[in-house]
Amino acid sequence: MTERIREFLRNRREDGPCLVVDLDVVRDNYLAFTKSLPDTRVFYAVKANPSPEVLSLLAGLGSCFDTASVAEIEMGLAAGATPDRISFGNTIKKERDIARAYGMGVRLYAVDCLAEVEKVARAAPGTKVFCRILCDGVGAEWPLSRKFGCAPEMAADVLEHAHRLGLEAYGVSFHVGSQQRNTGAWDQALASAAAIFRECAERGITLSMVNLGGGFPTKYLRDVPAVEAYGASIFQALRRHFGNALPETIIEPGRGMVGNAGIIEAEVVLVSRKSDAPDEVRWVYLDIGKFGGLAETMDEAIRYPIRTPRDGDILVPSVLAGPTCDSADVMYEKEPYLLPVSLEIGDKVLIEGTGAYTTTYSAVAFNGFPPLKAYHI
């Protein structure tokens, strides 16, 4: 926790959980990405934290933006980015939304099938498209499903279809899985990308760009490699599979850009047991849960570091749950969380690494609980 966040929370008088993001940390993260991958353009994944403060800061630093909707495109433009710095990176788009994006000047679109290519060709003629391919995501703490992307063997057909419809077949994209702790995870995906480049070249189509996606992690309970290690590994893989004919590259960091910049302060609402059995694990309920911004605890995939005012006391296994009346609002039960036995109702706890994917997952008003408050300092 930075001193700026510590001072803010010390002076806060409002009730309820809140997220506090230190913008200086976001700035440092951006500069680290640009230094570690100096020939790669950064397209910040807006969905990770779309606050105007974060977007304006990054736009001023020169960042581009990966967007998933017309609303996110409008956010990027409002923050000061020009349309040529925006990618419509969702492979599932309404044709009228493509047309709206085209009208706002966006000229870069993701596709992963023939039907999506045809929508872009009709609504955004002459624009650039890149084809997303499937990636196994081994090593990621939050692996991605098969919802986005096509088999690498299909990509050349998709890009050739785009070429024949008057679009610019620009390149290939992939995502190695969110919170990817393996710095070598990009190697196999780049091998697939290079093969697609060669096949397209044989068909008379010259591709230019590889979108390396996101996956860059933030620190939770376990240490993660520094961004410099990812940069070195990715560059080595690029040289290995593309030789001296290196393509243009872009990255789409989200979690790695803002995750470690934020901390949630929450309150213990209840500490209880379900029976008098001596081995009964106690339950600790907070005033924030899955519907208040901690959706990534689903399947206990992301385990956040939690600090309490009683750290140093004896730790005991605890089920950690949220305050709503939905039985799914339990964060950690399959693997109970170790918390101080002295933790009491009313204690404030700090949930670290919560700058990404918290406010954006916060429900509007489930059970009447308000959305997660956020402060960017």
UniProtKB/TrEMBL annotation:
Protein's UniProt name: ornithine decarboxylase
Entries under Gene3D superfamilies matching the protein: Alanine racemase, Lyase, Ornithine Decarboxylase, Chain A, domain 1
Catalysed reactions listed for this entry: L-ornithine + H(+) = putrescine + CO2
Residue span(s) of domain Orn/DAP/Arg decarboxylase 2 N-terminal: 26-258
Pfam families xrefs: Orn_Arg_deC_N
Family the entry assigns: Belongs to the Orn/Lys/Arg decarboxylase class-II family.
Pathway(s) where this gene product acts: Amine and polyamine biosynthesis; putrescine biosynthesis via L-ornithine pathway; putrescine from L-ornithine: step 1/1
Species of origin: Chelatococcus albus
Keywords: Lyase, Pyridoxal phosphate
Keyword field contains Lyase: yes
InterPro entries (alphabetical): Ala_racemase/Decarboxylase_C (IPR009006), De-COase2_N (IPR022644), De-COase2_pyr-phos_BS (IPR022653), Orn/DAP/Arg_de-COase (IPR000183), Orn_de-COase (IPR002433), PLP-binding_barrel (IPR029066)
PROSITE patterns the UniProt entry points to: ODR_DC_2_1
Stored CDD domains: PLPDE_III_ODC
Residues spanning the membrane: none
EC code(s) of this entry: 4.1.1.17
